[in-house]
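pls design
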């Protein structure tokens, strides 16, 4: 029972904004995280100025409904929305049976920037146009800065260095949100051995598969031991459908993470223009004017040197040189492109 139910006169509850069927732009250029969408309604305020407890339900088309209890307000902010998705939402005051419903659609403007407390440069690889005009699936592969800081050397000798572990970057609530919202099943650490020397498992906890693969940036992928073999290990893991959703990260989520993201989305048929755009989004996320631009140019120059008419074919040539078969490339596309299996 509401504390002021005896004096509350619930008007006709009405949703105010976004306007019904509006297209909401959540992919702001130059943003570091996805800007929240403000939902507003009227008719839940009592004569004395207090607000009725209100239940807010938000449901993506084809997805699960989430219900939130809102007190002392007639508005709410939601974020981490999928791109190009229709959302239905509504409000109701318990016990009065009156409510209102509306809907909006998010614009299909990748990249899908994400917001988690303590985690920088976090975004979805999905949303881009890939091979044959099919979109890369969202909620499958994520990239970010490190979930925790790298290990720091605190003494010892050159032969026997002593390290101390890095602290978690993501807060406790942030980790819980990642587990419940994104349901990560595979956590891939790309930092070098000395940075990840004390890391033995995922901060996301039990049930999350942990893969530690030191990975290079830029044109260094041409190195058999440091580049090709690590790519093969990661790619083979991503051929397992039970690996998804997966996240990969380095320290800042820029050069090493960006290199892997470019190769994977390149294999999926994302254009070179969009691959460049995606890389450039690390700049606002990290507060840098040109984050890792030299590595990106070196990587693209190297890929074009191996052969191929466009960047997709260049990525295919590179993958084959790592030991990946054409059938495995097609299997990856079937998992990651809309209209494939799954």
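designed seq:
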């Amino acid at each position: 029972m509401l504390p002021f139910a005896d004096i509350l006169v619930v008007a006709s509850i009405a949703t105010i904004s976004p306007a019904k069927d509006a297209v909401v732009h959540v992919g702001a250029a130059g943003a570091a995280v996805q800007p929240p969408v403000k939902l507003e309604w009227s008719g839940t305020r009592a004569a004395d100025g207090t607000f009725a407890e209100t239940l807010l339900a938000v449901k993506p088309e084809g997805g699960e409904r989430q219900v939130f209890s809102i007190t002392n307000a007639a508005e709410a902010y939601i974020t981490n929305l999928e791109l190009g998705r229709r959302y239905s939402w509504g409000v109701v005051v318990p016990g009065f049976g009156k409510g209102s419903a509306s809907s909006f659609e998010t614009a299909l403007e990748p990249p899908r920037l994400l917001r988690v407390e303590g985690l920088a440069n976090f975004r979805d690889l999905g949303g881009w146009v890939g091979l044959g005009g099919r979109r890369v699936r969202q909620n499958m592969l994520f990239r970010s800065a490190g979930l925790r800081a790298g290990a720091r050397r605190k003494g010892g000798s050159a032969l026997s260095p002593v390290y101390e572990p890095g602290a978690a970057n993501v807060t406790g609530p942030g980790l819980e949100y990642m587990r419940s919202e994104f349901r990560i099943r595979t956590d891939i650490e790309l930092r070098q051995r000395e940075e990840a020397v004390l890391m033995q498992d995922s901060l996301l906890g039990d049930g999350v598969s942990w893969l530690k693969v030191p990975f290079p940036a830029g044109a260094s992928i041409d190195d058999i031991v440091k580049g090709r073999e690590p790519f093969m290990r990661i790619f083979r893991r991503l051929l397992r459908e039970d690996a998804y959703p997966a996240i990969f990260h380095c320290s800042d989520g820029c050069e090493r993470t960006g290199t892997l993201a470019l190769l994977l989305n390149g294999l999926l048929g994302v254009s070179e223009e969009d691959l460049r755009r995606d890389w450039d989004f690390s700049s606002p996320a990290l507060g840098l004017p040109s984050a890792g631009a030299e590595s990106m140019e070196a990587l693209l120059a190297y890929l074009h040197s191996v052969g191929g008419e466009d960047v997709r074919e260049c990525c295919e040539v590179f993958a084959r040189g790592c030991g990946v078969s054409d059938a495995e490339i097609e299997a990856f596309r079937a998992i990651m492109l809309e209209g494939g299996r799954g």
